[in-house]
Amino acid sequence: MKAFKLIVHQNSFSPVDLIISLKDYSGLKEKDIVEIYHPENDYPRLLLQVIKDAPGRGRDTISVEQSIATTFQLRTFADVYVNIVNVPDVALDSVELTFKDQYMGRSEMWRLKNHLVSTCVYLNKKIEYCGGAIRCQVYEMWSQGDRVACGVITEDTKIVFRSSTSMVYLFIQMSSEMWDFDIHGDLYFEKAVNGFLAELFTKWKKNGSNHEVTIVLFSRTFYKAKSLEEFPQHMKECLQKDYRGRFYEDFYRVAVQNERYEDWSNVLLQLRRLFTDYQKIVLQYHERPNMEIPTAINSTAAQGNFLEVLNMSLNVFEKHYLDRCFDRTGQLSVVITPGVGVFEVDRELTNVTKQRIIDNGVGSDLVCVGEQPLHAVPLLKFHNKDNNLNSIDDYSMPHWINLSFYSTNKKVAYSNFIPRIKLPPRKSQEPLKKMYEDERKSKLLKEDEYMHNSIFDYDAYDAQVFQLPPAHSTCVQRVARTKKTSVAGLEGLRRSPPASIAHRKMSDPDIHHSLGDILSTGIKRCDSGCDTPDSPTGARLSPRSSISTHKPVIRTGRALINPFDPSHVTVKLTSNRRRWTHIFPKGPTGVLIQQHHYQARPAGEHPSRTENHRNNTRESHRESHRESHRERRESHRENLPKENGSPMINNNHPIYQVDGNIISQSRKRMISASGALNILGTVLGPPSTNNASLALLWGATGEQEWTPALTTANRAIGVDWKSLTIPACLPITTDYFPDKRSLQNDYLVSDYNLLPDDVNADFAQNRAIYKEPLTTMEVFKELVSQRLAQGFQLIVGVSDSDVIEAHCPSTPAPPPSKVAPQHSKPVNQAPTKRFLLSIGRIFHKLTLVGSTITVTRYRPRHPYPPFNIHYRYRFHAPNHDTYEVSWVSFTTEKLENYNWNYMDHYICTRGDTDFALVEALKYWRFRTLLLPLHNPATKQILEDESTHCDIYPTPTRQDLDQLTDGFLKMTESYFNKVKRPNKQRQVSPTKSLNTSHSNKAAAKTVLERTQSQTGESDDTYDDSVVEPKLKSTASLADIVERMRHPQLGVGFLQQTVSLPSHAFVSIYAIHWLQANVEGVTYEKAAQIMEKMLQEKMICHASGDTTKRFVVGYYMYHILPQKTDKDPTDYVRPLGDLQSFENEWMEVEVLGPRSPLVPHEASSGALDISGCSPQTDLTGVPAFLCDNIDPDYMHCDNDNDMPLYKNTHLDIDVNNKSDRIEWGHARYQATFRPDQAYEMCIQWAVASGNIVAELIFGWARKAQNCRLQMVPIPADPLALPFTLKSDPLRGPIYVPLNEEPLLRNKNALFEGFPEDTWLERLFLFQEAIVGRFGFIKCTVESTSHAAGVGDHLYVHVTGNMFILIITTVKSEQKARGTRRANKPLNASRYPVHFEAAPSPHEAYITRHVSGKNKDDYDNSRRMGFLWSWNHMISKKWKWSQYPATGDEAFQTRMLRDFKHFCANQEQRLSQFWDQCWELQEKAHGIDLE
Q1: Coil, strand, or helix at residue 747?
Q2: What's the confidence (pLDDT) of residue 314?
Q3: H or E element, residue 366
Q4: Contact (CB, 8 A) for 485 and 557
Q5: What does the pLDDT average to over 1143-1161?
Q6: 102-to-98, 317, 325 alpha-carbon distances in Å
Q7: What percent of the chain is predicted at pLDDT more than 70?
Q8: CB of 814 within 8 A of CB of 804?
Q9: DSSP assignment string, 114-146
Q10: What is the CA radius of gyration of the chain?
Q11: Which one of 784, 854, 937, 1056 has the lowest number of neighbouring Cβ atoms within 10 Å?
Q12: Stretch (H or E) spanning 932
């Protein structure tokens, strides 16, 4: 210890926190940790790490960064003591880091954790990683059972990541209790909204949380009816029937969809408004005049659609990789219920929900605003489908739901009493309840069958009912003797359960079935394990074990959970049980605690645990039933590391107290190599006798005991505000690995080896372009990263010997294994790294020995059956008018089917084309559209409130040319990052011929170009060319000669690795020909180039000779001719088209597609300067022209190009990452200036934040090219028949009112040939959306075969989509599909169609006539589907262009569009008449 003078410094002066000179303190070295404190203060001492020797602040002076000094109350110029500390003494047990407005993948979390090991952290320390791409802050630290202000992160520190910007679903259960009053006289709804939600939003604001929130009100309506016949037709499509034969419908009202608000108070107002009518609307939804419908009743909370709601959000959450948002991380479902935490549920749906929640790592919180009951909750009561008189209800306590109880802090003046049970209703309400009671009565016992108080020992009866089944290792005969209808619990044995209970599904080890399923259940293994299962005393640890000799009531063999005393029920530990435990800190007793359940208890007092002793030697526990259980069940004892040749027995096998249970420390990796304790200096608390393979049944941690004290008012379970404000991400570590016996009996083992060096040697030879391969170590780390990214967790704290012995399941003693050759020798011989990972019941072991990586996979021998639950419901989204019918499937994913071998090779080969990313790999993707940037109409609409929104002009030729130029510039400078040399011409230095920022007006003749010279394009080809133009008769050789001219030539691309010499871009060559050869039109130029290609004078830059000459951003090069003297500096092309396409983005550029057949049969289709598609040359709208192209509707593709092409993408352009990263771009093969252009970025081996930097960089640069880049969802319309659609999102149907346009006609287009009516109607609708600023986007169809009736349009601001529904005639359907499919198959990625042809119509018909489904009329199918682009978040709302993402603008557009289509103010009629006037005028000209 030494005294120093303290001064402070700013971060700008030095980035290090502590400046100290090593020579001032002998023995101090770099990387040492020192504590700094004022001798007279007892404020927490500051710990800092010495980063480097930094003399020069004066002798015996240290300098600390100013903000840290302020936080720790260190006074400047005062004396402080500096003391070197021993790292284990200040090692942290867990650290919580918070981050905001960024996407942090699990792989990044792991790499950041490794980066932080052996560094010093303190409260609010800001941490940067990956060159500042990842930023987070220290929120809380725990060490030795207490919160601390600073400490050191070691290998064993658990790091918890909490996100202030998550995707949050708030579900409010509008069950009948919402309209009841609580004890303070408030409605439960007021308590939920004005109380809980208001408080939650205040906390969000205070904490600066910025979640993306969806709020949904939901309820279940029962109908009093005995049969389906009682319902009118219009009600039948959504009715469901429950297990008791009751009919019901589920309703969802989406109040807020994917919104982020600074201030949520308006939302509270909106929810109150919805509340007033909610029940009335839902219960009377189907009422019609003069129609009898069954009575509707709102269900109670317990009977509501609780699990269905959780699954709805899971359907969105599990697709997180499809629409990867870059400014949020984390997923949370919160259900707010007026109930008390008890739900009646279907067993199968429970299994599905549980498995999905745990596998997907989604946080699920249940907030009850009802009064807390006197038993343990949450409690799921399974539907009892057994009508047997004696059948007993079965319960489960889900540990995967985080429970909170919200109570207002109102005081009642006259009493402290809180009633905990709601009073039964008055008799008058009986008829309503009757329907629920009918079936129940039949199950009650008759008067003479139950016993009376006088003779009955209730304690004994309870003890009997909750009797635990025999221990796991009991032999079969003994089971038979106990007369239980059970099968022995040996995991290896399999017997069929008794017939009476065989119909219960054996599907989940933690959900408790009848005793016959004991092989697959955990719950009933409860605490027993006694040696004498016949003696009831041994089998039970009941607080009241008085035994009566009375015969108990007959019951089926099932050990039930007693919800009033669950503290003795333990379950066999599983990986599911430990999935989230590492987010909980360790309390003073060494137990993982949930802070809002936390109870301070006097240290000595452990309720109902009188048998706990201080010392933990074997003798003191010989009688204890649990120790024997451990001895038999646990295989840890046999393979504990030997210490000095003798096995470490229990007394030096550290144990810590778990609130009345102990967990052996070998599980927690708290022992350092020397066997000394790493983190906890002493054994904490009085050790009890639980064992490491059991966990408590109740509660999220499995270690914190439920006690009756938790139900008393001052000890009540509070609200887990932390989880609701800054939800934790799924931890990257866990600590469960199955024991040896379980591995042998329950798992299948397979393994494969990877030799990255060998694999890369093979691939490097075939690669046209050499890329530095990943080293074996990089591959090894990446294999771990990818598994973490897919939801695996690293298993820590399992000793090596466990796993090595467990490797070979068939043999009792491990043979010399290639995976672990060192198991019998000292460890230091082979440098081995090993990681264990798990998800669900799948375990992976990755081992690196030398240059061989071995992947060992353990998967369950008996996997759960796959589930697929179909569910129909009604939902009402924002901007909709009705509750529409929708449907969804809830399925569990078969995680064991993921093709890891393929993924590992993809990593090994650095994403080579042989291992393309395929859908099943669940890689991340981000879809973007390039749209035109400025539109004066948008500005006008924003500035003038009274303007209509259909003022978007048809783009002029000049607009389209500028877009084409911008796109070419974007492709060249930013996507391909190539340069063309900027050769200044001597003659007119102001106008350069070819510059990399060329803004040439595409495809115009030189003459037009000089006339329409605009201010910006000062570098177009110049008419004042001094050298004479080439004659139109010039030979090809002459032209090639001129192309090569250093000053006048076409301008070659800079030579790079994969480009040959003399490479040029096809479209610029066409411009050059037009400028340099007399009389060359666009078509002629293309023909000249095609001829050169055939004559082998030019060739595609890849060396491929089979392709035609494509105009656009395609690269060609001039081949050396025989006459050339000296081709020594000639660089050859790659000679491999696939490799070339994998490096460069090449896009064909076409003109707008015209719906009209050209009058003269010229090759005008290719002309880039085609007129806009909406009108013909005289301005007549296309839908009234005579020469309509009959194929216009059906084929988006009129040439041999695939729809999409793929290329490799270099992601980490600024070299910020600590690993090699790459991705892929999937882009449209053709660009048309009148359509949106799509590009999808895909990645597996890249950090989200670095991908985000790349894309935001592009988006900024796009503005220089007069384009804007906006993100779009994978499924823009979210229709229910697409597999991946969001169940709470749906398009808005906008009908088109054609009545006023008919005017005595039978059909809209009477007078035109009937076979063109459909096309004309479609063109009419296209003209309407064009007026509102929508442009076509060819988006890969997710719902059905591409090209059939799918016409999607996007608004120029990128905010909304419109789908025009088209009915396709059958013979065209056949033709259209074929043409659209041919190019698809040409793409290298498999295309999956997921449903039958155009289901849109079926969907539309349900919206059309609102409630009167019966009077549905075929002719009224005209209309549009409108949907919002929910991917545009704040980051995309550039201040310059407020319309992108401006909410008021969006709602105004929709309102105005609806008005127009409904012909309000005669706007539709006027538009129609104007079009006809134009047509008549044009015809008048023709007639003259």
Answers
A1: strand
A2: 92
A3: strand 363-368
A4: yes
A5: 79
A6: 11, 17, 9
A7: 69
A8: yes
A9: HHHTT-EEETT-EEEETTTTEEEEEEEEEETTE
A10: 37
A11: 1056
A12: strand 924-932
The structure tokens listed for 1324 are 């009419």
Q: Is 259 exposed, middle or buried (0-12, 13-18, 19+ CB in 10 A)?
A: middle
Strand 94-99 to strand 134-143: parallel, antiparallel, or no bridges (unpaired)? antiparallel
Burial 672-704 (b: 16+ CB within 10 A, else e): eeeeebbbbeebbbbbbbbbbbbbbbbbbbbbb
pTM over 0.85: no
Q: How far apart are CA 903 and CA 946, in angstroms?
A: 56
Which residues, listed in sequence order, are joined to residue 344 by a DSSP beta bridge?
A: 381
Q: Which two tokens stand for residue 470?
A: 């025999």
Q: For residue 638, what are its two tokens?
A: 């046999």
Residue 255 has pLDDT above 90, yes or no: yes
Residues 6+ apart with CB under 8 A from 584: 592, 593, 594, 700, 701
The separation between CA 1263 and the C-alpha centre of its own chain, rounded to angstroms, equals 29
- Measured between alpha carbons, how far is 764 from 774 in angstroms, rounded to an integer? 12
Q: Identify the three-state secondary structure at position 179.
A: helix
Peptide bond into 378 cis (omega under 30): yes
Give me the half-sphere count of Cα atoms (radius 13 Å) on the Cβ side of residue 517: 19
- Tracing tokens 């293994």 back to the chain, one arrives at 525
The whole-angstrom separation of Cα 990 and Cα 839 is 66
Nearest to 1292 by CA among 977, 826, 881, 911: 881
Query: From CA 1113, how far away is CA 1128, in angstroms rounded?
Result: 28
> From residue 1295, how far is each of 257, 600, 1405, 1407 by CA, in Å?
23, 63, 11, 9
413-433 per-position pLDDT tens digit: 776 777 777 666 665 555 555
pLDDT (tens digit per residue) in 705-759? 776 666 655 556 788 899 999 999 999 999 889 888 888 889 999 999 999 888 8
The single-letter DSSP state of residue 1135 is S
DSSP structure string for 450-479: SPPGGG--HHHHHHHHTPPPPPTT--HHHH
928-961 residue pLDDT tens: 999 998 888 888 888 888 889 888 988 888 888 9
For the purposes of burial, counting CB atoms within 10 Å of the CB of 226, is it exposed (0-12), middle (13-18) or buried (19 or more)?
A: exposed
How far apart CA 1352 and CA 1278 sit, in angstroms, is 13
Q: What are the angstrom distances between the C-alpha of 284 and each of 272, 301, 636? A: 20, 20, 63
Length of the chain: 1488
- Residue listed under structure tokens 């879809």: 927
Nearest alpha carbon to residue 753 among 859, 852, 850, 835: 852
**What span, in angstroms and rounded, lies between the C-alpha atoms of 520 and 449?**
34
**Which pLDDT belongs to residue 1022?**
45
Check: CB of residue 971 under 8 Å from CB of residue 1113.
Answer: yes
Say which DSSP state 197 is in. Answer: I
Closest by CA to 1139, choosing from 1103, 1170, 1190, is: 1103
Question: Where does residue 1162 rank: exposed (0-12), middle (13-18), buried (19+ CB within 10 A)?
Answer: exposed
For 1147, the token pair is: 């896009």
3-state DSSP percent of the chain in helix, strand and coil, to 5:
30, 20, 50
Asked if pLDDT for residue 921 goes beyond 60, the answer is yes
Q: Supply the mean pLDDT for the chain.
A: 74
Structure tokens of 691?
């064992």
The candidate with the shortest Cα–Cα distance to 623, out of 535, 562, 710, is 535
E-strand stretches of 1039-1079: 1063-1065
Question: Between the CA of residue 1258 and those of 642, 930, 966, 1064, 1479, what are the distances in Å?
Answer: 59, 10, 13, 24, 44
Give the CA count within 13 Å in the CB-facing half-sphere of 518. Answer: 29
User: Residue 247's pLDDT is what?
Assistant: 94
